[in-house]
Amino acid sequence: MKTCDKLIRDRMPETLEKAGIIPITRQLDEKELDAALKEKLQEEVNQFLENDQIEEIADILEVLEAIVRNRGGLMGMIFEIKQERREVSGGFEKRLLLEKVADDEVS
Fold this sequence. Notes:
By secondary structure, the chain is mainly alpha-helical. The chain has 4 helices and no strands.
């Protein structure tokens, strides 16, 4: 028997059973889920960095939505905060790279 100990999507047990694999699962409590979602987010980000596929971004978004839900928030709230931050600091449309900062303060 192979140990996996990783968060899976809701329909993965069905998929495994159809492939002839018997999954052994349990439901996580909120604290366990929070930790598992953080691990899953890191996994999905790493997959994106390795593969550079747009599908990986969709997986990252799915995990982020689950994190927000688990913490009692709504994605609409997150998008409002994102917009507020954009208004203050801007976005990334100008594609700016900060190369250096001068040691002297500007008067």
